[in-house]
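Dear all,

This email documents one entry for the complex benchmark we are building for the journal club exercise. For each entry we list the sequence lines for every component of the assembly. Then comes the predicted three-dimensional structure of the complex as a token string, followed by one or two observations. Please use this as the template for your own entries, and keep the labels exactly as they appear.
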Amino acid sequence: GESVGLHLPTLSVQEGDNSIINCAYSNSASDYFIWYKQESGKGPQFIIDIRSNMDKRQGQRVTVLLNKTVKHLSLQIAATQPGDSAVYFCAENAFSSGSARQLTFGSGTQLTVLP
Amino acid sequence: DTEVTQTPKHLVMGMTNKKSLKCEQHMGHRAMYWYKQKAKKPPELMFVYSYEKLSINESVPSRFSPECPNSSLLNLHLHALQPEDSALYLCASSQLDLGLSNQPQHFGDGTRLSIL
């Protein structure tokens, strides 16, 4: 089947620096992408999403970029803070049956913010 | 705090036990999901319910039995589980897509299940 994956399993950044987490997907039919943050002992927390008719979307301190030509997705976190330390998953939301969508996760990147 | 509530937070059971995991949401979402997550791995989809009807079963063994009694509740009944079933079980919910409208899934904090 199609897969969604991440380039780097771990990322360490200094507090205050910007972080960039990358994701590659292989299903050219994918039309919706989500970034989740998962802290230890918690469930995935929605951060930001983007539809395939967009190439950039900004939230509070976060920006998602989508390059459909190379099937690449990235999450940029500005002024990274200790509370940003977590595992970040990209996910592809693909149409399956009925009107409920099937969510396929990438393998995740562990972000560690250094003091 | 998440708007999807899962109970219990932790569960230890023997291989011959029968137990149930519960999930509740009051966001008016009509799609609900069960995922299984092993340590250091992404969540894997198990079941999807749309309008309280099972729409997707990802070839999950019959020792896992989902149930959706109403639009706010989702259960996962467990029987005769194996040690390899030990994992974090996550529930999620979302609005149903209408046409081209995409809706993110919102997750609970999961039930940490250990099979002895």
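Observations: The longest strand of chain A covers residues 86-95. Chain A has a mean pLDDT of 88.
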